[in-house]
C-alpha cells in the first residue's frame, strides 16, 4: 500500500520506532522523499509529503488506513433498543445516516418502530452470529452494541471486529471489564455518575465524523 503523509497528519514528526509501537503489525518497507527512495531505520523521522510504502496483512492495513484518515460514517447499526439508543436516534433521526436497530424484545421493537417511523427495526437477537450475518453487519460503517448485558456487548464487539467492522462502539457499565477489550479495536461507551461518554466521534447533520487518534 502506498500512502502520502499530509501536513496535518498525526504521523508527521513521528519516528519509525514510534510508528512500530502504534502499528506493530504494519511495516514501512520504503519511503520516498523528494523523489528519492530509501529504506529507513528506526530513527527515521516522517515528514509532510513523504510517500510511505506499507506491507502487512489486509486487515491490519485496513485498520491503519481507517485510523489515519478520518471518514464520515454513513451507516450505523444499533444493537439493543434501550435509553441510549433512543437518545442517539433522536440526535440522528434527521441525518443522512442509514440507521438500523436490532432488538430482541418484540414490544420494545414495536415501540421504536412507532417512535421512529423511518427507522428500520429488526426484532431479533442482535448478539447472535446468524442474525448479524443475515443483517449484513460487516457492511455497516459503525455498530453500537448497547444491550443491558456487558458480557454480551463485549463478545459481540469482538465478533464484529473479526468481521472487519470499521468502528465498534461498546456499552459497558462495569468498568472492571474494560481490561478484556483493552487490545480490541473497539470504542467504549462508559456510564459513570450519569454521564455518557462518546469519545472520538463528532455528530453532525450529515454523519458521524471519526477523529483519528493516531
Short précis:
The chain is α/β, with parallel strands linked by helices and 214 residues long. 27% of the residues lie in helices and 29% in strands. Helix 4 (106-115) links the parallel strand 7 (98-103) and strand 8.
Structural class: alpha/beta
Which radius of gyration do the C-alpha atoms yield?
20 Å
CATH domain topology of the largest domain: Rossmann fold
How many strands, which pairing sense, and closed or not: the largest β-sheet? 7 strands, mixed
Task: Give the uncertain stretches in residue-range form.
Answer: 190-214
The residue fraction in helices comes out at: 25-40%
Shape annotation: elongated
Any guess at the CATH architecture of the largest domain? 3-Layer(aba) Sandwich
- N- to C-terminal separation? 18 Å
Order of helices and strands: EHEEEHEEHEHEHEHEEEEE
